[in-house]
Amino acid sequence: MALLRHTTGEIKERKALTVNPAKTCQPVGAMYAALGVKGCFPHSHGSQGCCAYHRSALTRHYKEPVVAGTSSFTEGSSVFGGQSNLITAIDNIFTLYDPEVIAIHTTCLSETIGDDLMQISQKAKDDGKVPAGKHIVYASTPSYVGTHVTGYANMVKGILKGFVTKTGTPNGKINIIPGFCEPSDMAEMRRLADMMGIDITMVPDTNGVLNGPMTGHYEMYPNAGATPAEIAGMGDAKATIGLGRWATADGVNFLDAEFKVPGHVMGLPIGLKATDRYVDLLRKLSGKTVPDSINFERGQVVDLLSDYSQYFYGKKVAMAGDPDQVLALVEFCITLGMIPAYTVTGTAGKYFDERMTELLKDVPYDCKFKCGGEADMYLLHQWIKNDPVDLLIGNTYLKYVARDEDIPLVRHGFPILDRVGHQYFPSVGYSGAMRLMEKFLEALLDRLDRDAPETRFELQL
C-alpha cells in the first residue's frame, strides 16, 4: 500500500514490465468454465501449487469451495513428461469422486514440456481408465500467454468439441454462450429468454453451482449446470449467440464451421443499449415478440436514468477489467452522461482499440485507453495522478488506488475478494443496469455528502 504513494505521474514506455496487472492466468478461466457443466470435475495438469492458486482465486471470489484435481508434477514429471501422472489422476478421479466429466486444462509447466492432451486422453480411454458413459474434455491453457478470459474461451471450445454432435433433426433451440461473468449474470440472461418463451441451451452455466443455497449437506456436484446431453444437442440448434467477443467467439465460430449453426457474437448485455441489442436479437432469431414485462423493466431503467442524470452528468470515470466487461461499461457510462476518462484491460485484442475509438468519438474529453500486458493498474494510477477522476470501477485490487487517491470505488469484475453480492445480483440485463446505476449513484452521493460543508449538507434528492 505504501509503495503506491511513490507512483509518479511521469509515464514512460514499457515493453517488458507489468505492475499490478488487470488480469490473471488462463487456467483460472478454464476452471471456471468447467464448473458450468453438470457433474464436472476440473483437473489442472501441472504442479500442486498452480492448482492451489487457481482454486483459491475462485474460492475467494465466490466464497464457495472450488474442488479440482492436479497431476502433481514432481521433478521427474517435469523432465520426462506428465503422461503417467495424468492417466493415474484420471483413474483415481473416476474411482474416488465419480464425476460425469473430467475437464483437463494445462499449465505453464505441462505446456513447456509439450504434453499432448489429445493423445494422453485417448490412451486413458484405450487403457480402460474412463468408465462407460463418462467423458473427458480438455483445453490448452498455457499461463504465459493470454489471460483468464482466454482460458475461459479455450475451455468453452474444448467442452463443445468434446460433446456437440449433429443428428440432422433441428431442435428449435437457441444456444447461448455467456462470456466470463457472474453466475447471477448467466441467470439473468436465461431469465430474459424465458420471459420471451424461448427455449435455450446455455453453456457454460454456473448459476446454482457457485451461488447455491446452504442446505446443510455438501454436494460436490450441485444439481445445476449444462448437462452433457444438452451440450450435445447444440449442433441441432437454430442459432448461437455469444455474449462477449473475447470469451465466446471461438466457441460460436466452432459451432458455425463444424455444425452449420449460424453464429452471432455481441457484447455482454450490460447497460441499456447492450441489453436492447440482446433482447432484439433474441426476438429476431426466435420470431417471438417482446412481452410487456420486459418493456416494463426497460422503462424503469429509462425512468431511473432521467430522474438522476444530473448526478451522473460529466463525472469522470476510470476503470480496469476484462475487455468484454469494460467495453460494455464504457458504453453504459456514456449513456449515463459520464466520461470514461481512463480504461485499461490486461487482455489484448485489436478489436478493443477499434471499439473504444468508436464509442468515444463524440465524448468531449481526451479519453485514454490501453489493452495488453502493459495496460495495468500502475498505468491507470499514473493517468489519475495527472488528472484525477470522480469514480473508479474495477476489482478489489483497485481499492489501493482508491484509498491512495481518495476516490470512490465501485467493485466490478474479477476478482472481488472483500465484498459479497456479485455472485447473487446481476449486472447484465435491465435489472442489472438498475443495480449498476444504484451503485454508481450511491458512491457519488456518499462522496458528495462527505465533502459537503454544513451550509450544503442537506437532502440532495
TrEMBL record:
**Family matches, as Pfam families:** Oxidored_nitro (PF00148)
The record's comment on cofactor binding reads: Binds 1 [8Fe-7S] cluster per heterodimer.
Where would I find the Nitrogenase/oxidoreductase component domain in this sequence?
25-444
Q: Which InterPro entries match?
A: ChlB/BchB/BchZ, Nase/OxRdtase_comp1, Nase_comp1_CS, Nase_Mo-Fe_CF_bsu
E.C. designation(s): 1.18.6.1
Q: Which cofactor does it need?
A: [8Fe-7S] cluster
Q: Which domain of life is it from?
A: Bacteria
| UniProt entry keywords in alphabetical sequence | ATP-binding, Iron, Iron-sulfur, Metal-binding, Nitrogen fixation, Nucleotide-binding, Oxidoreductase
Question: Which Gene3D superfamilies did the record assign?
Answer: Nitrogenase molybdenum iron protein domain (3.40.50.1980), Nitrogenase Molybdenum-iron Protein, subunit B, domain 4 (1.20.89.10)
Q: Top EC class per UniProt?
A: oxidoreductase
Listed under catalytic activity are:
N2 + 8 reduced [2Fe-2S]-[ferredoxin] + 16 ATP + 16 H2O = H2 + 8 oxidized [2Fe-2S]-[ferredoxin] + 2 NH4(+) + 16 ADP + 16 phosphate + 6 H(+)
- Cellular component GO terms, alphabetically? molybdenum-iron nitrogenase complex
A single GO molecular function, which one?
Answer: iron-sulfur cluster binding
Report the PANTHER family cross-referenced here: LIGHT-INDEPENDENT PROTOCHLOROPHYLLIDE REDUCTASE SUBUNIT B
Q: Which family does it belong to?
A: Belongs to the NifD/NifK/NifE/NifN family.
User: Subunit composition?
Assistant: Tetramer of two alpha and two beta chains. Forms complex with the iron protein (nitrogenase component 2).
Function according to Swiss-Prot or TrEMBL? This molybdenum-iron protein is part of the nitrogenase complex that catalyzes the key enzymatic reactions in nitrogen fixation.
**Protein name as annotated:** Nitrogenase molybdenum-iron protein beta chain
This chain's source organism reads: Solidesulfovibrio magneticus (strain ATCC 700980 / DSM 13731 / RS-1) (Desulfovibrio magneticus)
Gene from which this protein is expressed? nifK
